[in-house]
Every structure is written in structure tokens, then in C-alpha cells.
Design brief:
The chain is α/β, with parallel strands linked by helices and 263 residues long. The protein is built from 11 helices and 9 strands. It is globular and about 65 Å long. The chain starts with 9 loop residues before the first strand and ends in a 9-residue tail after the last helix. It holds the Pfam family ECH_1.
């Protein structure tokens, strides 16, 4: 199993094939500083090829997921001019791309503030669980700013019609509305329910072969034209059937037992 880097803005724990990543700046409601962005990107890179890590659970400390970008970073960038703002903004977009394409299953546990950059992280998770009283929103335009790196991922997650409404009104909404929009998959009424749902989802993920999950995720996110995409899918399928996981999975089915990765 890969060694994960030491971090100042994140709490990391690995157990039973799961990497638990907790955004840990509670005094700022886990606002996304450039330092946190850099640390998250380093963690993702460290485990990218590690199939012993089956899932990443992303959540926040202090009762909040993430309240958006760090105003202190923006103030420091102001002194350096437009180029610094561009680099700061684009770094977060790179993080969203990397989370989107991470081979492991990414599960977001959303509580408290899920705003701006936190909203963007929710949009690139594979599975999202929310507390019913979580507060979602894209506040950028109410501050005279743009959801520049976030907007494309919001559109892909919930569609253009709803993305336009949310981005152009800075409207706030709760977990129930997030589920109605298709942003999250489950909404729970209390902390115990959220933990039980998370345990259920993780048990489901661990029944799936890690390599097969990684390639399936790549297939689902591939945006090339349909014909070439299906050609690529056929090649991946043939490799899976003849690979170690395919052989073990079919043998386990015939022998009426759990495959090794689910044991």
C-alpha cells in the first residue's frame, strides 16, 4: 500500500482498503487554501496506481465540508496581480480534474457548508451522501466573482438548466433539494444515519473488483464519439475477461464463493 504524504491541512487515515481524507481547517469552515489544494493533489497522486486503496472518503472537520475558496489566498494574490489570480484559480480546476479521474471510488460526505469549491468537490465525487441540513450554494456571483473552475463540473453533474439557475442567483439550498437536483445520492436526517449509510456504501464498493471499478469509471467518463468509445470498451472488456480479476470473479461465481477482493 502506498505511503501517503504528511499534511498540515488534511487528516489522513488508511484502514481496510479505504483512505479517509478529512479537510481540516475548522476555523475557516475548511475553506480551500492553495496549500490544501496542493496537499490534496499530492495525496491523490500518491495513491493513484495503488489498487490496495479501494475508495477515498472525503469529508470535513468541525461540522462543515468546505465553505469555498480561502479569502486570505485571494488577498495575497491581489498584491501579485492578475496572473497570480489566474494561477490560483486554475490550480483548483486541476484538483477537480484529478478527483474526477481518480481510479478509486470517491465518496463525499457532505455536512454543514458545501459552498463554492466545496460544491465543486461534491460534483466530482462518484457517490455523495448529505446531511439533510447541509447548506449548498454557488455564492461567487453575489461576491462579484465567477464559479470559473467549478461551472463545467456543475453542468455535467446536474445539467445546464439547473446550473444556470444556481450560478446566476447564488441561491442556497439544503440536502433534500440537492438530492432532487441529482447532486447527491443519499440524504440522511442525523449523524448516525449518515455513518450507517456510509458503511453500507463502502461495503457495496468493496464487493467490486478494484481494477474493474477503475476501468469502468474511465469508461463512464470517456467523452469520445460513440463508435470509437464502444471499440475501446470492447478492448477493455476482453482484457478484463482474460485478466486476473475476470478469471477469479468467474471462478468464484462457479464455485459459489466470494471473490478474493470481497473477502
Amino acid at each position: 500500500m502506498s505511503a501517503v504524504p504528511d499534511c498540515q491541512t488534511l487528516r489522513l487515515e488508511t484502514r481496510d482498503g479505504i483512505l479517509w481524507i478529512t479537510l481540516d481547517r475548522p476555523d475557516s469552515r475548511n475553506a480551500m487554501s492553495l496549500h490544501m489544494v496542493d496537499e490534496l493533489r499530492r495525496v491523490l497522486a500518491a495513491v493513484h496506481e495503488d489498487r490496495a486503496i479501494r475508495a477515498l472518503v472525503l469529508r470535513g472537520s468541525g461540522g462543515h465540508f468546505c465553505a469555498g475558496g480561502d479569502i486570505k489566498d485571494m488577498a495575497q494574490a491581489r498584491a501579485q496581480g492578475t496572473q497570480a489570480y489566474e494561477e490560483l484559480n486554475r490550480a483548483f480546476g486541476s484538483l477537480l480534474e484529478e478527483v474526477q479521474h481518480q481510479p478509486q471510488v470517491v465518496i463525499a460526505v457532505l455536512e454543514g457548508a458545501v459552498l463554492g469549491g466545496g460544491f465543486g468537490l461534491a460534483c466530482v465525487s462518484d457517490i455523495a451522501l448529505a446531511a439533510h441540513d447541509a447548506r449548498f450554494g454557488l455564492p461567487e456571483t453575489s461576491l462579484g466573482l465567477l464559479p470559473a473552475q467549478i461551472a463545467p463540473f456543475v453542468v455535467r453533474r446536474i445539467g445546464l438548466t439547473q446550473a444556470r439557475r444556481l450560478a446566476l442567483t447564488a441561491a442556497r439550498f439544503d440536502g433534500d433539494e440537492a438530492m432532487r437536483l441529482g447532486l447527491v445520492h443519499f440524504v440522511e436526517r442525523d449523524a448516525q444515519g449518515l455513518e450507517e449509510r456510509l458503511a453500507e456504501v463502502l461495503a457495496q464498493v468493496l464487493r467490486c473488483a478494484p481494477g474493474a471499478n477503475a476501468v469502468t469509471k474511465a469508461l463512464l467518463l470517456d467523452e469520445q464519439p460513440l463508435g470509437p468509445l464502444l471499440d475501446q470498451a470492447a478492448r477493455w472488456f476482453a482484457e478484463a475477461v482474460t485478466g486476473a480479476e475476470g478469471v477469479e470473479g468467474t471462478l468464484a461465481f462457479v464455485q459459489k464463493r466470494e471473490p478474493r477482493w470481497a473477502g
